[in-house]
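A quick aside before the break. I want you to see a complete sequence-to-structure record at least once, exactly as it would be stored in a machine-readable document. Don't worry about memorizing anything.
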Amino acid sequence: MSVEHAQKQEFAFQAEIKQVLHLLSHSLYQSRDIALRELVSNASDALDKMRFVSLTDEAQRDSGPLEITIEPDESARTLTIRDTGVGMTHDELIANLGTIARSGSGEFLKGLSAEEREKAQISLIGQFGVGFYSAFMIADKVRVRTRSYREENGWEWASEGTGQFTIEAVSDPLPRGTEIVLHLKEDARDFTSPYRIKEVVRRYSSFIPHPIKLAPDGEVLNDQKPIWVEPKRQVTDEQHERFYQHLSHHPEEKPLWRLHVSVDSPIQFHAVLYCPPTNLERLGFPRVEHGVSLCAKRVLVQSDCRELLPEYLRFLFGLVDSEDLPLNVSRETLQDNTVIRRIRGSLLKSIFDRLEQLSKDEPEAFQAFTDQFGALLKEGAIVDIPQRDRLAKLLRFASSHKADGKLDVSFDDYIARMPEGQSRVYFLGGPDLAAIEKNPNLEVFRKRKLEVLYLTEPVDEFVMNALGSYSGKMLTSIDSADLDLPEAPAEKKADEAEASKPEPGFERVLALFREAIGDRASEVRESSRLTDSPCCLVNADGSLSTQMQRILKMANQAVPEASRILEVNPKAPLIRRLSRLSANAEHDAFIKECGLQLWSNALILEGVTPDARELVGRIQSFMDEAAEKRSPLIVP
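That is the input. The structure line, written in tokens, reads:
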């Protein structure tokens, strides 16, 4: 120990430290927990340095255990964080704790040769500098007692966070390392609670690679292994399950699938992601708001970093750890989100690769995933334009190809079954499967054995509207006016034409229907899509599908009045009978009433309630005529 350093010395902080410390304590840090996190990170950094020294300096080979101890003292209202790391000399105390944001780790590396730096591979996230000064968030006085591995005697640094600090020699022997004693503020007394300390350490520092012990009972607080940095093949299923339970707080639950990613270029990061087995939003729980945890060199930076994944993947639990995160002085906010964008892009590619592999190699597992989270992928296909093509491949729907109503038909499945000449993918939406299957628009598709996708989820209509087409084939609702159906075989086409040949009076029936319905329908015309039902409603070209209109109205959205077309089936028994009656003008009023009733029936089938008084009155009139055998439909 030099004579000039033996006496207690007082130093002024560089810059206007009082104002800077106030800023650090009240603006940059959002949670007081950060103070303990930063000091533990600093201690871990000092241990990493000591581990390197012990490997390169034979005199330090037997350096003893490398560990961190946290000691609360409620009676003295102090909290002590102690490590067995490299410690600091007198000059290092001045350099590292007298300058805001000065990196002791940076200076440490500068002192090494290029070869030594390459071998060091130590974590620099915990560094004396701004992180250290977060201590003044919870302490009105801080003492640092330290002895460097290069010296026999130790030093004490002390400050109340004002304009100066003091350094003096410590007379009693100190072990190698650093001990930070926080004299806690009155309103920070909770940091003397072992429970509070455990809570903070386990949240932020669970993956620090050195033991963190609680002094009262010696309990190790960070027993969770950072499995994401391990080679994939060395991590067992049990380890993944345990880590998933740690992240999700769902004990005994197993993830549906997992993803373990290690990327070296262009951004270096490790990640593990887990898909839970159940979508709580489907069970009526509020919207999931958790995000993926973001770490920098094993230290938690943000527990719900939603910038790492898009909203439609909000159900995933996971953790991303990167060496390349540029952090600002508080370590809570990223200086440049370019790194985050690159990590996000790599994660998305890996997730889609995993889901595509799951759909091919493990169809049952993929079906379980679709049943729970398929609607969220559909949400993504609507909003995520850059990823829309990959998302579209993963979407699943019910279909007329199968009667079970399962959401297990992909666009590729549908296209593979399309007959020659079909140029569109047909779909039909409705409130549920039963309502869809009763829709008269399906009749020609059943007869021609043309597959139709059933849209049973509200989001489906928005998906079709957003996609527009898939693999060059237009997505078309079968209640559209223009279906562009594939040509039927010549002989079948001739049979259909003969069977659907209208009665001579059919055109007059259409004219009477038009007169009765008026401007409620944009057009009344002959139908080529019906085989049994007398009529159906279709939407004019460019209009929204019926189901889309219904959904928007339920959401109280302004929907332009749809231009509806009433298509009439000339071969339906009722229409044939009316066509024959039209030869006698005395039946015109009755035919008009039938036209109005058919219009009302078509509306009811689509879930629209027509004028109730008019409808009931008309039905009553029909019933009265039938009872008195005055109805023109009753054959004498």
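Two observations worth writing down. Residues 33-56 form the longest helix (24 residues). The first strand starts at residue 9 and ends at 12. We'll return to this after the break.
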